[in-house]
Amino acid sequence: MADLHTGLARQRGCQPWPMPRRIATLSVHTSPLHQPGTGDAGGMNVYIVEVSRRLAEAGVEVEIFTRATSSELPAVVEMAPGVWVRHITSGPFEGLAKEELPSQLCAFTTGVLRAEAARPPGFYDLIHSHYWLSGQVGWLAKERWGVPLVHTAHTLAKVKNARLAEGDRPEPKARVIGEEQVVAEADRLVANTAVEARDLIARYDADPVRVGVVEPGVDLDRFTPPERGREVADRLAARRRLGLPERGLIVAFVGRIQPLKAPDVLLHALAALRARDPELAGQVTVVIAGGPSGSGLDRPTALIELAGRLGVTDAVRFLPPQTGDDLAATYRAADLVAVPSHNESFGLVALEAQACGTPVVAAAVGGLVTAVRDGVSGMLVDGHDPVDWARMLASLLAAPARRAELSRGAVEHARNFSWSRTASGLLTVYREAVAEQRNRLTAQLADDATVIPLAAC
Fold first, then answer.
1. Which of 243, 252, 304, 394 has the smallest C-beta neighbourhood within 10 Å, fewest atoms?
2. Which residues on neighbouring strands pair with residue 212, listed in sequence order?
């Protein structure tokens, strides 16, 4: 569509549609300044941070609206050159669960509209909302500002409920309805993978013309593989950095501890591995790096208790959420990274691990079938049966040559993804949405017998 509009503009002697100058990014329930891996902070936070920085580098200013969670937070924080985070007061600063946030959407929307009203008319060219709560705010703001709304769901209630982990709470009907409304009203829907695009069309009746796929990326400067010939030395250094066992085999889980992410599957697989191959299992340490989140907050020590009941406590190490170089070190310290989630819209952990040269064993669900190239950069497991997981882990842990082969494939696969590529894809979507909006306005004015040149002229 972008090429079509460029061609029409050139035919009329005009310049192509310009990129948006300023974008209002909405992230109601979690701030890009929060630490991923605990609470409600996860891959979406990383996505917003990394994409916003790349957009700013491309000359597009980004203002991120998020809910204030402390009275000590400044109204506006410059996160990076050209990127600002604006804290909107809406409800109590602390003690408000994500499930309670719909009651504060009116207050949040008021704060967003007031911020825009203090600016010159037409200050924002486009709204990009993340998650359905933000989509509800964006739906109203786009009508008030007369700009297009681009929405990224990140997770979908109907998909989560269809693949619910045992004992987990289903997403409420209010969220399902809210998502349906946002899907119907957004000018563009950005899916992380073709799988998510199909879910939007099949489960939410989204217009296929308005659905586009823009895959997330990975920071290829931070998440890097060891130098050729230094694989063992770098793995040992990473283990020392984190205080992990220097000898033996490590299987790592990185992410929020909640039923959806299924770290319990990994502990059950470890117990099954001990029954299957005690000698091999005796060399294995499972590392869990993350904090309780979602329904996992109901029982924050449940995973520790499970390890005790399974009799594997001696082989399990718990680490807090890791950041920056420590996160990269966690991936490099491991022989394998496990991603046993019941659903993932993409799976950034899998991509980060592969960029560090660590093969991934993942559930064959959602975006993980894109993030992991089965048999090349890692292995996919159908279902969540611990016996199947134990069998797959054993086959790789006992085969260093196969792991080395997958490691090389993992690095090559990860190189196909970058945040600059993601930002470029989003800019194409933004330009299409802006062009379509302006064409609609031009047509409306023409119907009113008002003659104006094409917007770019």
1. 243
2. 190
Chain centre distance of CA 148:
22
Q: Which residues lie closer than 8 Å to 17 by C-beta, 6 or more apart?
A: 2, 5, 6, 9, 431, 434, 435, 438, 455, 456
What are the phi and psi torsion angles at 451 (to 5°)? Answer: -95, 120
> Are 98 and 293 contacting, i.e. CB atoms less than 8 angstroms apart?
no
pLDDT tens for 351-403 read 999 999 999 999 999 999 999 999 999 999 999 999 999 999 999 999 999 99
Per-residue pLDDT of 310-322, as tens digits, reads: 999 999 999 999 9
Q: Which residues does 321 contact at the CB level (< 8 Å), separation at least 6?
A: 35, 36, 37, 38, 289, 290, 291
Lowest-confidence pick of 146-150, 161-165, 375-379: 161-165
Using CA atoms, how far apart are residues 65 and 76, in angstroms rounded to an integer? Answer: 9
Q: Compute, in degrees rounded to 10, the torsion defined by CA atoms 173, 134, 154, 56.
A: 180
- Asked whether 165 and 147 are in contact (CB, 8 A), the reply is no
Q: Is residue 338 classed as helix, strand or coil in its secondary structure?
A: strand
3-state secondary structure at position 284:
strand
Enclosing H/E stretch for 11: helix 2-11
The tokens 């250094």 sit on which residue?
Answer: 237
Nearest CA among 454, 434, 437 for reference residue 22: 434
Q: Which helix (H) or strand (E) holds 314?
A: none
Secondary structure of 248-284 as H, E, C letters: CEEEEEECCECHHHCHHHHHHHHHHHHHHCHHHHCCE
Strand 76-80 and strand 83-88: the pairing is antiparallel
The sign of the dihedral angle between the CA atoms of 44, 50, 53, 57 is negative
Sheet strand arrangement including 22-27: 76-80, 83-88, 61-67, 22-27, 126-130, 149-152, 188-191, 211-213
Find residue 88's DSSP bridge partners: 67
Q: 3-class SS at 139? A: helix
Task: Give the Cβ contact number of residue 141 at 10 Å.
Answer: 22
